[in-house]
Amino acid sequence: MAAKTKYAKSGDVHIAYQVVGHGNLDLVVVPGFVSHVEYIWEEPRAARFLNGLTDFARLILFDKRGTGLSDRVGTVPTLEDRMDDVRAVMDAAGSSQAVVMGISEGGPLALLFGATYPQRTAALIIYGSFARAIRTADYPHGISEQELSTFIDHLERHWGGPWGVRHWAPSLQGDIAFRNWWAAFLRLAASPGAAATTLKMLMEIDVRHILPAIQIPTLVVHASRDRMLSIAHAHYLADHIPGAKLVEVDSEDHFPFIAAPDLIVGEIEEFLTGARHEKESDRVLATILFCDIVDSTNMAAAKGDRIWRDLLEQYYQLVRKELSLFRGMEIDTAGDGLLAAFDGPARAIRCARQCAAKVHTLGLRLRAGLHTGECERIGDKLSGIAVHIGARIVQHAQPDEVLVSGTVRDLVVGSTIQFENRGKHILKGVPQEWQLFAVTSA
Q1: Phi/psi of residue 90, nearest 5 degrees
Q2: The pTM is what?
């Protein structure tokens, strides 16, 4: 959704905020340690997650003072300062009462706000967060001050690049597009000094004493294998907030829009409304293209991580250019693999052939597999047996080869595209034998 950024005045500080959606309840999102209310929408997974929340809520996003599009400040803001910012944003958005969702470092602020202003807080959603970050004798779940200092030192030295992906989104460490977005997001959200100052506040944050005073409905959600913050933090919160509900999601990713976005949105909706909205799905006929780089594992080992990442970035830029020329839609990437969809099999074949030819300029070789079938479309994703068949076909393709199912071959009869019969194959996990054909000219 397109959203207009506005500003609320909190004392002498301008706080950037957005209001998105028209749900029956207001949901204020308190972000993690840095944020950017506009650039967050450039990440497709994040946009889908936020749009999922707008199915049932009017979403109110903001950048905390000192970060994103909000005013920079000369002093370290306290939790009390930031509570004033939340109230100012709610007032500017015309929200007398809202659900407050605290994500990661935003969790303690949300908890304190809920305890202090129960009349303005309909419920609390605490995701991937904590009551205290630093380990003590009576709180063994956090990290040591030395560990935090080392973490901050690393931050300051590496800010500007895709720093911390292995902590925040380990499942996407090899995703070049995500790494580029994350690096730009960090640069736009804060300077390295501002980010370091924000994290240094973690040494002072401790809201354990206010947890028993929270008397509003509270949902605590946490990734069970979160690399940033142990699941023990969530158990502590749920044990000490009266009546709190704990939901663990099976993931090691810290970001909710990567960990298990649909599940998390569903849990939040059910907690707040009593029912879970079923996503509308469309059945569409599409030609599915899978392609990947031949011998990528050995090449990555030989070239080293940095050179290989740069090469992958060039590869994805090349492939995406061809997709745009042939009206293909990128669906997903993983490592060196790419999934795309087309509304016509001939264009899909020609695009695959062009990609296979042009990656030679990068010293790479490509193989591709195509199948046409009915798919289920949910948002910007495709699923169904046709997708699985396409994924299996590419496994039988030779280097530089575009391999297609008999369905694709039959649909382009009468065109100038020529094929060579590659015989029948068993596709793992797919019923019956499948006749496959290699494209010889297009």
Answers
A1: -60, -45
A2: 0.70
